[in-house]
Amino acid sequence: MAAIPWESARTGMLKEQFAAQISEFSSYLGQNFVVAQPEAVVPILDFLKLEADFDYLVDVTAVDYPKRPERFDVVYVLYSFARNERIRIKTRIPDGYKPHTAVGVHLTANWLEREVFDMFGIEFAGHPDMRRILMPEEWEGYPLRKDRSITAMDNRWVKENLGIESGQ
Hints:
Shape: elongated
CATH topology of the largest domain: Beta Polymerase, domain 2
Distance between the termini: 35 Å
CATH superfamily of the largest domain: NADH:ubiquinone oxidoreductase Nqo5 subunit
Mean pLDDT: 93
Helix content: 25-40%
Radius of gyration: 18 Å
Order of helices and strands: EHEEHEEEHH
């Protein structure tokens, strides 16, 4: 099933404020999202928080497309308690690009961005504590990147720290 165009009062507000920085307004299975330029994401998050009551950053995650020039989609999920409504802000970035942190807009971005760093290797510029949060500090690689097989994960670390073969 393909995404369909999304038109609403909300998209009108966003078009007026961020016209050239948003390339897509779509809905997929009732889930509304915009695709924005990386440098526009934090201002969009701030605008939606202050002007549209999207007061809770539910999640920040990523999707890896290793054969695409803009290898990663970084996805921010916002929620409005006032309207019981969600919106997703997506941006596409190449490997090595450091999107700006959203911690200044939503404190919950702190640990969420650390998880994206830990799993995908995406560093957030200006983040106050950019270090691993789930994997051990000495872990090599990023488990959710698609260019490494799950069976080729850090077997050395597993053997040294757990004293077992990985079982793969």
